[in-house]
Design brief:
- The longest helix has 15 residues, at 102-116.
- The protein has helices at 30-41, 57-63, 102-116, 150-157, 180-184, 188-195, 215-219, 255-264, 293-300, and strands at residues 17-25, 49-55, 78-79, 85-86, 93-99, 120-129, 169-178, 222-223, 226-227, 231-232, 235-238, 243-251, 280-282, 286-290.
- By secondary structure, the protein is α+β, with helices and mostly antiparallel strands.
- It has one domain (8-299).
- It has nine helices and 14 strands.
- Strands 7, 10, 11, 12, 13 and 14 form a six-stranded antiparallel beta sheet that branches. Strands 2-5-1-6 form a four-stranded antiparallel beta sheet. A two-stranded antiparallel ribbon has the order 3-4.
- Helix 1 (30-41) runs antiparallel to helix 3.
- It starts with 16 loop residues before the first strand and ends with a helix.
- The structure holds protoporphyrin IX containing FE (HEM).
Length: 301
């Protein structure tokens, strides 16, 4: 049997507009829930829009009681060093819309909401956009160290053949709110030490120049000789009042997320925190399962 296909939107890069919607189910009737999800996804023109649908552990277990990927868990609030907290806002269904036209993306968000509001409560809504070609609002390019080739992206992001959930992905979504006034008051040399890369040239700091509490040092991890690679698809968001990053990443196992978060929040032996969390604060957090296309269709049947 060939490997099952991941949802294609996961790998669709270079879109300009994103819309994220998270829902908590409030109806027990599975038929009604499936009907709403089918309606939310109906009549998509793949030239205009890509939509990735993911499920929290409890919801997936209800909708597909026969199997759940081995490592899928609910996101639990992390209590880090120096009073830093990564809160859990675990919900049930997560829609990620991308497209090049904001109007079309908006129409899709409305279609999803009109269907989902019948069976669920909206717990998070966030629009996102591409900021100056993959830049974060901190002024640093985001996504540089993502796996480079299609094959490496899949290796990092997709549950391998033969495992429960093959062709699907574990997903982390976290809304981060930046304190840009505080960040912009930091001299560029120091910002570079916090991220672990140069700002202009986007080069990784080397040797002694790389602080062990930089964002790169805290996230570029190996465990038992395995690089904890993930595939990041985050999007900046902003109004003049609130600005940040909707962190979104896909992985073949949940450990890749938990090990990096624990390292960022000082829940490791050295108890060092990622300096970046002094300038940006996580205000949401959920783990999801994005099933392979076949498994999604099978479940909705
Ligand atoms: C405020 C939130 C965040 C911001 C602004 C941010 C920004 C960045 C930037 C600018 C880079 C360097 C360029 C690149 O390789 O992409 C980076 C790298 C990275 N980030 Fe983040 N990030 C955030 C949160 C997170 C979280 C929550 C995780 C993991 C759970 C994470 C995992 C990574 C990884 C794995 C890398 C690449 C490390 C390597 O060089 O191998 N980031 N991030």
């Amino acid at each position: 049997m060939p490997m099952k296909f991941p949802q294609i939107g996961i790998f669709r890069e270079n879109e300009q507009h994103m819309h994220f919607l998270e829902y908590r189910l409030n109806r027990l009737n599975l038929k009604e829930i499936k009907h709403s999800i089918v309606g939310a996804m109906a009549n998509i023109n793949p030239d205009d829009i890509s939509l990735v649908v993911s499920f929290g552990k409890q919801a997936w277990h209800r909708l597909q009681p026969d199997w759940t990927p081995a490592s899928l868990e609910d996101f639990m609030t992390l209590y880090g060093q120096q009073s830093h907290i990564a809160p859990s806002t675990q919900a049930d269904v997560f829609f990620w819309i991308q497209g090049i036209n904001m109007g079309v993306v908006f129409d899709q968000a409305m279609q999803i909401h009109n269907n989902m509001q019948v069976v669920a409560e909206l717990t998070l809504e966030q629009q996102g956009f591409d900021y100056h070609h993959s830049m974060d609002l901190t002024g640093f390019e985001d996504g540089t160290a993502n796996p480079e080739t299609e094959a490496l992206k899949r290796e990092a992001a997709v549950i391998p053949k033969g495992q429960v959930g093959e062709g699907g992905s574990l997903v982390l979504s976290q809304k981060w709110v930046h304190d840009l006034a505080k960040w912009n008051a930091v001299p560029v040399r120091c910002q570079e030490g916090i991220i672990g890369r140069t700002k202009d040239e986007n080069l990784e700091l080397e040797g002694n120049a790389m602080p062990d509490d930089s964002h790169i040092s805290r996230t570029d991890l190996d465990m038992d000789g395995v690089a904890m690679k993930m595939y990041r698809r985050s999007a900046p968001f902003g109004t003049v009042q609130e600005k940040g990053l909707l962190f979104l990443a896909f992985a073949c196992e949940l450990k890749r997320f938990t090990s990096q978060l624990e390292s960022m929040y000082g829940l490791t032996e050295d108890k060092k925190i990622d300096q970046l969390i002094n300038y940006s604060k996580a205000v949401s957090g959920s783990y999801w399962f994005a099933p392979a296309i076949d498994d999604l269709q099978e479940m909705l049947r």
